[in-house]
Amino acid sequence: MSDSSQPAVNPALVARVKGILLQPKLEWQIIDREFATTKSLYTGYAMILAAIAPIATLIASLVFLHQGIVGALILAILSYVLGLAGVFILGVIINALASSFGATPNPVQAQKLAVYAYTAAWVAGIANLIPVAGGLIALIGAIYSLVLLFFGLPILMKVPEDKKVVYYVVILLAGIVLGVILGAIVGAVAAIFVLSTASVAALGASGY
């Protein structure tokens, strides 16, 4: 009788995560040579890992902060969608800037860079399960993602060595602006839910 059971997690995805986190320079060389499409990068990798932080945050919100499930779920979904959108836009920015720094424009290579560089931040998102301390762990993951981006930039985008740092800094600044914008959207929605909840509670307390 054959065992038809399938592994719960794609072994190739696990191998890629381990490779990019533990041996980034070698893994970027492998990624550089791989065939990929924007669709495959997102459906087979980004959409899976990007869900870690929103799910962890959702659980923490319900268990520790006792938020309403509807509001917490909507915020989790919004964070997930905007997070993926942010990665995609960053890839577009990387490609759009390439020729200005002597790099080779290639939209798929740029998306590879954006997607796989985010690995550390996505994986560290599991720490959102831990109140307070989890934020520090997530920050460390985000910083390591910036390191991964720096390692992968010259390999995937073929940027000249003398322009690598400036190209990286411009991408970094663009990413910060993008992150602030997306964060503000999530924050605004969260504020709306907080105000709505407070208004309902006030009405209930007043007897209306």
Question: How is the main sheet built?
Answer: none
Report the portion of residues in β strands.
under 5%
Mean pLDDT: 88
**Strand tally:** 0
What is the helix content?
A: over 70%
Per the principal axes of the C-alpha atoms, what is the gross shape? globular
H-E string: HHHHHHHHH
**Assembly type:** single chain
In short:
The chain is mainly alpha-helical and 208 residues long.
Write the layout of secondary structure elements.
Layout: H1 11-22, H2 24-33, H3 38-49, H4 52-63, H5 69-98, H6 107-117, H7 119-124, H8 133-157, H9 164-206
Helix pairs in contact: 1-2, 2-8, 3-6, 4-5, 5-6, 5-9, 6-8, 8-9
Walk me through the structure.
The longest helix is centred in the C-terminal third of the chain and has 43 residues, at 164-206. The chain is mainly alpha-helical and 208 residues long. The chain starts with 10 loop residues before the first helix and ends with a helix. 77% of the residues lie in helices and 0% in strands. Helix 4 runs antiparallel to helix 5.
Task: Please name the defining characteristics of this protein.
208 residues; mainly alpha
